[in-house]
Amino acid sequence: MKKYQTKFLEKIRQTLSDWESQQTISFDELYRFLHSIAGTGASIGLHQYSAEARERLDGLDPDKDYWIYEDIYTYLVETVLIEKMPENQDVSLILVISEHAEYLAFIKDHLEPFGYMVIGAITLEKGNQLFIDQKPDCVLLDYPYEYEDAPAELDALSQKAFAEIVPVIILSELSSKDVQNQAYKRGLTDYFVKPVDFEELAIRISNRIQLRSIFEHSIMFDELTGVFTRRYLRLEGTRQLELYHRYQTIFSLVLMDLDFFKKINDTYGHQTGDEVLRGFADFLTGLKREGDLVIRLGGEEFVLLLPNTNSEQAMIMIERFRQMFRDVQFTYNQKPFSVTFSAGISEVTKPINKIEELSDEADKALYAAKRTGRNKTLIFDPNALYEAEQIVTICIIDDDEILRHLVEEQLHKVHVSGFSFQILTFADGEEFLETNWYQPRQKFLVVLDRMMPGLDGLEVLSQIRSNYPELDIMVVMLTGQSDEREIVQALNAGADDYITKPFQPDELRARIQRLLQRTLL
Ligand code: GH3
Ligand code: MG
């Protein structure tokens, strides 16, 4: 995170020094500057900057078309943005809450030498307020009481802090184990008995803060490839949409998916598959322009978010990337191989609320690129008729009518994007096998009761496996309660999963939903 914070602060300084040589700064320039601080600051842990910028943004006079540098400087220097910009950008902010002002000052004096910035509150209420406004990295709470009659503000603070993974450390005169455990039960993080050993406290604070920053980093950056995650796309996408709504500044979203990636894994192993994913991420990161964003959505799907780029410009760029990438050589046991990708592009052309609407459009174009040969790029065309969602047929075979309906009702609720489901029910194995349920190149899920009069589930399963392509048909067996032999038989006969009776209806649904997602996506 520190790397991004440093870069971010450098960029602020750079813009200000550029403006110094400019005669005037337009309203738009200033608006965008503050807007980007507000958006990016919050995403990279500089909440104070973000909050200050947002406040300035809200107070910006829309009738003032131009600014001169001196005004802006005064205007911003008065805020935390510049003057209080710490030299060491990693200074952590500690909020100390204590009823005693002298003790507050005492803690401040002892912690600041360790490089922390300390702010204080003398009531829990004020502490809660500062927690919201200042987003401290750690809270020290001087709380010399037991917890039985603890005020509601204490729980409010501990819940908020818990949700944001901000440690709350108690400093107290009370050394009883019981009281300490009560504190932990309330979600408070650490407990120090006074007199406090400040050296130990400083180390504890530092460890906790580091842990949190690793966590924050891990949800923002993809572990395997180091590019941004889906979560960041949502943040940055929302910011781009706001800019579009205000200024009509267009942007494009490109969705890319490696072709036949499953085969790479199957042929060369997952480790090589991972290298290809890293290679692709590095390839994109190396070629993109500054300001473009690379995101791994998951699996072998990546997004490029291209500000100020229309779909034709994006097309030229991605086509160049595509042609270059197919020449990139990967190796397995010194044997070279290459990989291609397909892409779908969508440009923002109308006001929308969520970035997902744009990625859904790009997905339609990508899907069309896949269907029509792969290794190609297509732009989403709002007038095109995209092929309907792929149909998955679910067959429920159970002689118990009530159970059949219950399973049917649950499976009506499953949802996998890009697929629509139809459900067929059968009262026994014979009826199922005699019906013309199978269609080549479609996907099927068969929920099959193990114990049925006539043909039992195992026989039906073995007929399915010997007469139809295995990959197109998933089979879930409903077996008797924890009869291991039945389970082993079912799996040996080719069942993909089993569910033991009796089952909770929503558990059945969740389990099948997971299986479908894993297999279809
Ligand atoms: P298509 O051209 O239609 O996109 O075919 P495909 O084989 O690329 O697509 P499919 O969706 O069938 O397979 C994607 C595969 O990606 C399946 C999954 O095992 C693999 N995969 C997902 N995440 C990872 C990962 O982190 N590492 C590796 N090595 N493989 C992954
Ligand atoms: Mg793929």
Automatic annotation (TrEMBL):
Residues modified as 4-aspartylphosphate: D142, D449
Pfam families: GGDEF (PF00990), Response_reg (PF00072)
PROSITE patterns cross-referenced by the UniProt entry: GGDEF, RESPONSE_REGULATORY
SMART domains: GGDEF, REC
Keywords of this entry: Phosphoprotein
Domain Response regulatory, chain residue ranges per copy: 93-209, 393-516
InterPro entries tied to this protein: CheY-like_superfamily, Diguanylate_Cyclase, GGDEF_dom, HPT_dom_sf, Nucleotide_cyclase, Rev_trsase/Diguanyl_cyclase, Sig_transdc_resp-reg_receiver
Span of domain GGDEF: 249-382
NCBIfam families linked to this entry: GGDEF
PANTHER family: DIGUANYLATE CYCLASE DGCM-RELATED (PTHR45138:SF9), REGULATORY COMPONENTS OF SENSORY TRANSDUCTION SYSTEM (PTHR45138)
Name this polypeptide is given: Diguanylate cyclase (GGDEF)-like protein
Organism: Alkalicoccobacillus murimartini
